[in-house]
Amino acid sequence: MAFGKKLRFGAFIAPFHPVDENPTLAIERDFELVQHMDRLGYDEAWIGEHHSAGYEIIASPELFIATAAERTKNIRLGTGVSSLPYHHPLMLADRINQLDHVTRGRVMFGVGPGALPSDAFMMGIPVSAQRDRMDEALDVLVPLLRGETVSKKTDWFELNEARLQMTPYSRPSVEIAAASQVSPTGANACGRHGIGMLSIGATSAGGFNALASNWAIAEEKARDCGTSVDRDGWRLVGPMHVAATREQAREDVKFGLHKWLHYFREVAALPLAPDDGTDPVDALINSGMAVIGTPDDAVAQIERLQAQSGGFGAFLLMDHNWAEWEAKKKSFELIARYVMPKIQQLNVNREESLEWAKTNRPKFIGEAMMAVGVRVAQHIQDKGTDNIRPEILEAMGMGKKPEAAE
């Protein structure tokens, strides 16, 4: 049996921390989560950038990545995402390129226009200009990160024969991926530059329905621009919390789900949380937005996404803090133990080997007994039966079990 590429697993860590907790300890738990994922064999962790609204409290994904890289061994670390209108492109490219060297190629560069209008407001950036500015920044960031020299002038930045001092550690450059929701903005950017796509709301109703069409837009744009896009660079994001039973999972999320729902319904600009007036857990499950259940439920969700999208390269758990810390860590562990091997077909050969050994057990046991019999017979021939234990003789059909002492 030929095996294709393994679906990668990771997390998209905004993060979401309620305002009644110690923020310093909350960020420390984010580091501990990435370390936990690294030990469990997760492939990627993407770290957000936000500057307002109080919940998503990492302002610099680059600082977080530099620290996390020192505490981990294998997991790749991405900006999820860097809000391009907030940074001069040369300065941002220089920081990402430095991280590429510092992490020995483990860094990834996720980009977007900025998710919180309140961030843009504080900096005097018109929300209506954010997507145009993302496109303008990306037009120069891609060649800069490949080591090219760039000159460009816009109404918000200027580059004069700009280039990075260090050539890229990763060749041709650090991996780049653009955020995509329902609109075609991200998909067009991916196709124009031949970069990866981050479908952040892949399990929301709108995001799920737009999966196939957004990928088609990226492919069409790539053809028009003479680039190419690869499904292996397409990452889908969705929330999950799993436990040993569905009942336990529902009990676990009572800790923090209501706070997360309040943030998305009352504060954040992304309509990720369904609000149909029913029980919120039922609403999240029935809409397909989230998995709150068992590893089998998680497998079914990923298979559903594969069927809808036509195939993608990585599934990223949207980190949410719905459950207490220990239950959250257990959820990540259960996904690594039971969901990853099912999706990645890690146990196919083991299962076939087990069934083969079971089917042929009578034959193998017979041959094993025959081999023992040959040695026993040889021993009897050499030494006689006096030195052979009675139970061995009985097992070989060369005697009977001694009667109980009279």
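Next protein, fold it too.
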Amino acid sequence: MKTRLLSIIRKEFIQIFRDPRTLALIIVMPIIQLFLLGYAATTDVKNISIAYWDQSRSPESRALLDVFRAADYFNFAYEVQSDEEIATLIEGGDVRGALIIPPDYARKLLEGRAQVSLILDGSDATVGATALSAAKLIGQAHSVKVLSEQAARQGRAAAVQPPLDVRTQIWYNPDLRSAYFMIPGVIGMVLFAILAMVTATAVVRERERGTIEQLIVTPIRPWELIVGKITPFVILGFFNLFEVLVIGHYWFGVPVRSNLFLVVGTAGLLLLSSLGIGLFASTVANTQQEALLTVFMTILPSVFLSGFLFPLEAMPRVLQIISYAIPLRYYLVIVRSLLLKGVGFAALQSEIISLALFGIIIMTAASLRFRKRLD
């Protein structure tokens, strides 16, 4: 029995290494996804190009411009002299907005009623919202500073202390880096999507080439064939896990705060689900294209309803309920908590049990159907 099983595993590895496209999909694609999502898919909007129109030309207006320059959010790309120039630059996409300082800014600042205008391009809602929030915070901080300086000159520094001081603390990701959110998600997507696709196509490929019949007439038992077919993909799945973990930690600085054995163990539970989906897809498809389409029917809902890209709390209640039927939903909560928060099994007990149940149910159903087709 052991010899038969090892022969199937060896045959599957040979088949994988003889197919450069499958090998590239398994090994190279996770790295590409890692760098694309680590750098491109980010909500850390900085260096927003804006124009400025300083009509005051005073030390006070230059101080305000210096405050905006010091922040990482804005980059003064153009100095303009009219509303028409502002409209032209925004319409052409050269800038995302414009800061307008009126001629009487310095005088009104001393009177305590100065106003400046910030025009923003709202065609990109994410950039617009970030710029709006940043501009308000910069303005509030600068106004407090000006009040403090004026009061200090008049000998009443204590009078400008705000009545409420809200002091914030951010745990686990103090710099709010998007990579800390995205890269653990990449681990889930690699283990779930890529492994399901290659498993489905590998089994169907045997049927297309007619080699599945040769395996059936051999003394190999159905369970041995199933284990032998999926074992190489389990090994490659764990290789992908360590690949993403190493690059994510040493290149992007994503912490690994929990027990590594718990990280690997929970990844194995997700592998159980992904391989089960791939195996099940191979039983309902007759060609590799059909198998891929079947797997894609599970991948697309998983991307949008698992919390990989969009927060579940922002979705309608109906979609939140549907998300409980997606294994990736539970794993993303698990892997992000393990890597960033350093929690243990007790804190994630319900998610781990749910993921394990999904994996067992899906793999059992796929194995029974696969065995039936062999018989």
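About the second fold: The two ends are 19 Å apart (CA to CA).
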